[in-house]
Amino acid sequence: MFVAKNKKFRKIIALILVVTTSVLGMPAGVFIESAGAAINKAFNYQGKLMNASGNAVSDASYDIKFVIYDAETGGNCVWTVRGACVAPTAKSITTSGGLFSTLLGEAGDNALPDFSSDVYWIGITVAGDSEMTPRKRIGSVPQAINADHVDSTGYIRINTATTTIPAFSVQNGSGTDSFTIGRSGNATTTGNWTANDTLFVKDGNVGIGLQNPSYPLHISGNAYIAGSATTTGSFYGPGSFVIKENGNVGIGTTAPGSTLHV
Q: What CATH number does the domain located at 2-139 have?
């Protein structure tokens, strides 16, 4: 809240930027409406106009200019509620007991700037007065509109704004998908996988107990199989124990010539 004295009014303007965070007991202030993939980026600005005697102005409509700047003083205009930065025009606001509330960025207003980066201040000008000082900094709530990158179309996007990702995708610094989960539930990665420092997936090989598997399934340590195991190749054990693909078992030899070759 701030007080500014100009030649016509003493104005007390309260900028309320409160995001609705709970279904129950939702506070007034900034609100974001969503319909499908669309998001209403308008935010609520509330205040009170008072005359030089400290009394609320008469209930009426007042022309108020709202301008967003990139600096607290001076700087550049990046948005104006109506008109253009070179010639801002006012928006008609109706007071009740001096209080007013308006939705900036609603239909009839200019589209709001991107709040995902930079810091902005809003300046207010009532009727023929000069712009009130100081400008009010716009807080983090409108900037949180950047969460529009998580929308209701079925996409979760990290480090990207595109909607062509199947369902969930994480990109690397160069913008290439490193990990993707498709709508069917299939997961794809262009890198290696590590789980609990014991399970490793690298170059198409799976290693259990070792980081650099050399075979489709490479186990370092003992293996226990509960149930049947089927293989179309040979099976080698410690030392010179082998079960060949033709069913011959070799003990002390890796080339058994009979069913049991010792």
A: 2.60.40
